[in-house]
Amino acid sequence: MKNISAEIVAVGTELLLGQISNTNAQWISEQLASIGINVHHHAVVGDNLTRVENQFRTSASRADVVIVTGGLGPTEDDLTREAFQQITGMDIVEHETSMAKIKTYFQKQKAGMTPNNRKQARIFAGADVIENQTGMAPGMIVSHEGKSWIFLPGVPREMKRMMTDDVIPYLRQLTGESRVIKSTMLRFIGIGESHLEHKLRDLIHYQSNPTIAPLAQNEGVAIRLTAKANTDDEAAALINQTKQEILNKVGHHYYGADEETIEKKVLTLLQQANKSVGAAESLTGGKFTDKLISIPGASHVCRGGIVCYDTEVKENVLRVSPELIQQYGTVSEECALAMAENVCTLLDTHVGISFTGVAGPDNVEGHPAGTVFIAVHERSGKQLSQKYTFQGDRQTIRKRTVLKGYELLYNLLK
Question: Half-sphere exposure of 49 toward its Cβ, with a 13 Å CA cutoff?
């Protein structure tokens, strides 16, 4: 296999302003790693012709493959083609197939096509054109002075389709990789990255094939297993063997693989148990329910939720006793348990879950920011509650609270 280095360049001032996150670079890096291509640099450059040109020169000096996302649109600040032309002198021509597609789109929309939309159909003469199945501007693969340049739209869904259908097969051919490379993500909850790595230190130390890569993610931690073999079956067997060794050590925290999320897992467990759930949400403000109902099929298990941020709503809608609140406060185990039991009754569900606490920045009822109570009540009468102390800003605390709620439900249901 030929050793190839790659660089990913994102073009767009909106990335530098923090208006959107550069998730494209992360995703592309994961795809390249799975086929053995090393990414040595990520770069982000604004919509300025000179700066884009300078970045392209720098990238060409240190990488075999340069993947550029963004700057292929119809507006004046879309300058990717012009910058590359400046350093290569390559002609830019109109791609007839792409132009016809753009015209057809506007005809179907019964909207007039402005002249600047023709810009999206411009390609470099001699480029291998990548059809855009979900948008307008095509992608391109260009060879210049021994380097491979790959130009893709910045819209994630368009970029991902092109990478999967066209770019990855091209890069496999470029590297000469004939063996099968197979990856899977194992997902864990209720354990930190450092603790997970400590538990698996022997396996990680002696890894060879598959490779074991712990990854911290927004919702729990994950391990990426990547195996190389002559066939799919051989690669799968290698992964399954290592996966079992990992689960023997930390299987209690494992909930799923690849694209499975904790909320999908909880929904599946509720469906299998033929149970329904309702939520009483104070500091989470509906975030728990929102995550659940974003999954198709949630209507079979989620009857609804009550956002009870204000004390009067807790008393008058959720029917939490004013005397209980007077005695223990709204930020308490007692209040959380009452909320969980009452929402279970009011919504006629098998399980009720509640969230109350302090998102910050100020203290509430003498409790510091990050103090959280989560309670679960089952129709059978079984109850559990947990107190947590989270660090971070308001949004981080609320997000971690929701995640911990799903962890509690998962452990209860499994």
Answer: 9
User: Is the bond preceding 361 in cis, omega lying within 30 degrees of 0?
Assistant: yes
Q: CB within 8 A of 214, min separation 6: which ones?
A: 193, 196, 197, 200, 204, 221, 222, 223
pLDDT in tens, 362-387: 999 999 999 999 999 999 999 999 99
pLDDT digits (tens, 9 = 90+) for 301-328: 999 999 999 999 999 999 999 999 999 9
Q: What residue ranges define each of the domains in the chain, with the CATH number in brackets? A: 5-175 (3.40.980.10), 180-257 (3.30.70.2860), 262-413 (3.90.950.20)
Ramachandran angles phi, psi of 285, nearest 5°: 55, 30
CB 184 within 8 A of CB 242: no
d(CA 123, CA 295): 40
Q: How far apart are the first and last CA of the chain?
A: 44
pTM above 0.85, yes or no: no
Tokens 């299998």 -> residue:
272
Quick check: helix, strand or coil at residue 183? Answer: strand
Helix (H) or strand (E) holding 170: helix 168-175
Question: For the chain, what's the residue count?
Answer: 414
Q: Residue 97 half-sphere exposure, CB side, CA atoms within 13 Å?
A: 8
How far is Cα 319 from Cα 315, in angstroms, rounded to an integer?
Answer: 5
The residue with tokens 């930390």 is 250
